[in-house]
């Protein structure tokens, strides 16, 4: 077995993907633990955050906000509707459009969820003023990688080699 070379670009500890992966797993696990008291899964919590912030939305817009496709979102919404947290209604002007709204029970849950962001921030060990900086950097990574991936897909679709 070769020794670890700090200059080795293939060393696990030098991989951005691994740092993001382990941080994501740790945060998601913490959310899972905290959200258990609210009887919400992490994806359900994200749905509720969008609906609490924006109000009634078509499923398509909700999916866009969460970066989830309809096939992933629909079963999630069905379970949440069964739990009494939201309703799904077909649009009167176009029955193909399904609107999602928070119920009274879902609205009451917002108050109980209030402490969650502070609990997460505390667990990160980051000072609050650094949180915005971290989000900005992660958003930049997401935008850049998405653009690069879309560019690669476009070149591949055209059969262009670069």
In angstroms, what is the radius of gyration?
20 Å
* CATH H-tier superfamily of the largest domain: Winged helix-like DNA-binding domain superfamily/Winged helix DNA-binding domain
Please list the strands of the largest sheet in the order they lie side by side: 1-3-2
Number of helices: 7
Report low-confidence residues grouped into runs of 5 or more: none
| End-to-end separation | 36 Å
Helix content: 55-70%
Q: Which class of the largest domain in CATH terms?
A: Mainly Alpha
| CATH topology heading of the largest domain | Arc Repressor Mutant, subunit A
Taken together, the total number of domains comes to 2
Classify the secondary structure makeup into a structural class. Answer: mainly alpha
Total beta strand runs? 3
- N-to-C series of helices and strands: HHEHHEEHHH
User: What does the overall shape look like?
Assistant: globular
Going by CATH, the architecture of the largest domain would be: Orthogonal Bundle
Question: Mean pLDDT, as a whole number?
Answer: 91
Strand portion: 5-15%
Main sheet properties: 3 strands, antiparallel
Protein name: DNA-binding MarR family transcriptional regulator
Subcellular location: Cytoplasm
GO molecular function: DNA binding
InterPro entries: HTH_MarR-typ (IPR000835), MarR/SlyA-like (IPR039422), WH-like_DNA-bd_sf (IPR036388), WH_DNA-bd_sf (IPR036390)
């Amino acid at each position: 077995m070769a020794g670890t070379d700090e200059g080795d670009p293939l060393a696990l500890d030098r991989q951005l993907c691994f740092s993001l992966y382990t941080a994501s797993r740790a945060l998601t696990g913490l959310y899972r633990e905290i959200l258990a008291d609210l009887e919400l899964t992490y994806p359900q919590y994200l749905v509720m955050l969008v609906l609490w912030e924006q109000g009634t939305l078509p499923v398509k817009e909700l999916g866009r906000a969460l970066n989830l496709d309809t096939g992933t979102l629909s079963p999630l919404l069905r379970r949440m509707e069964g739990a009494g947290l939201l309703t799904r209604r077909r649009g009167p002007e176009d029955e193909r459009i399904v609107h999602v709204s928070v119920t009274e029970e879902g609205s009451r849950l917002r108050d109980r969820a209030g402490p969650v962001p502070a609990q997460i921030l505390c667990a990160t060990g980051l000072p609050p003023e650094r949180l915005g900086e971290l989000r900005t950097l992660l958003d930049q990574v997401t935008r850049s990688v998405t653009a690069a991936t879309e560019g690669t897909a476009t070149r591949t679709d055209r059969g262009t080699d670069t």
